[in-house]
Amino acid sequence: MSKLLYTGLLVILLGACKPSAAYESPIKELLQSDQVRTYAFYPSTLRMVNIANNDEIDSMASDINKLLIFRLDSTAIAKKKHLKIPDQYQSLGFEEYLTIDGGKARAALFGLSETRTSTLVGYWSATDETFAFYINGNIDWMKLPDIMEAFQDGEIANILSPN
Amino acid sequence: MKKLFTLLVIVLVAGSATAQGQLVNSYFEKLAGDDTYTKVSVSSKMFSLFTELEAGSAAEEEFLKAVSKLKGLKIIVADSIGNAAEMYNKAITDISKAGYEELMSVLDAEENMRFSIKEKSGKIEELLMLVGGKKHFILLSLYGEIDLKNISKIGQAMKVEGLDKLSKISE
Questions:
Q1: Short-list A20, A64, A21, CA closest to A46
Q2: Which of these, A99, A102, B105, B115, is most buried using a 10 Å CB contact count?
Q3: d(CA A8, CA A4)
């Protein structure tokens, strides 16, 4: 009887520990199409785009398991599928971290923190460009503003908008 | 009787929690769908992530502790509107009516700025910053347990438009 109980508990626990990779599927299913270009980054590729060899970026990149960036073209933007990301992920237990609405930009950031890793999903939409993203790994929150600044200063190669 | 008491406590606690950020929420609702205003909302979950970080120094530890006590941040920004002065004056009236205390005002020819707070049991539970220029308007609400000593550092660290003006408090 106790064996049965342990087996039952194990099955429940395994079910609760949903692999983080499972959270990739909803955003892929929602966005992947001919109108969306997908970029996948891993620690090695993230270090490659760090053209200024910024140590902060390298150390952050080593803790990231995977980063997916979806660049939507005008047809995909018109379909507004990226706006469905919040509802889709909230139903999976993700919580709202940040939203920006109105003005020149619209953005949403939702996340799920597990014991060692966090998963973030969201989108960023400005006047003529819209991106959606998925990040899984051990994210150092303190470094995020500096990394965004490094990106704006051109320390990170912008392969998403090469012109 | 005990049940009634518990229920009353729950109602009171829930009431005080929702009171934080109430004024800025009413502006969010009013301006929903108006694209001339940018509305930014940062949830308590985002701030709680700072508790997971390791501090490198005592000052950093104090800063992280201060950030982790925040419950939310809401900002409404407009860069180029025709009725900025009208919006500013209306917000001043709404802030006074809602019972906020004035902390500091900066008035000059280019823009007016007013910081107001809501206190409870000697602790600041909401800080409002209102900025009105010739064409621009900012209403910012930071709520939770607020430590004014760290407020400018929070503004600098978050690199969000409008938050840089919080440094005026420490000046």
A1: A64
A2: B115
A3: 6
- The torsion angles phi and psi of B139, rounded to 5 degrees, stand at -125, 120
Model confidence pTM above 0.80: no
Put simply, the answer to whether B49 touches A148 (Cβ < 8 Å) is no
CB A159 within 8 A of CB A58: no
Encode pLDDT of A113-146 as tens digits.
877 788 999 999 988 789 999 999 887 766 666 6
Calculate how close chain B gets to A48, using CA atoms only, in Å: 26
| Number of domains, chain B | 1
Shortest Cα–Cα distance, A146 to chain B (Å)? 9
Look up the domain containing B29 and give its range.
21-170
Minimum CA–CA partner of A99 in chain B: B41
In a domain, A157, yes or no: no
pLDDT in tens, A45-73: 888 777 777 777 787 778 888 889 899 99
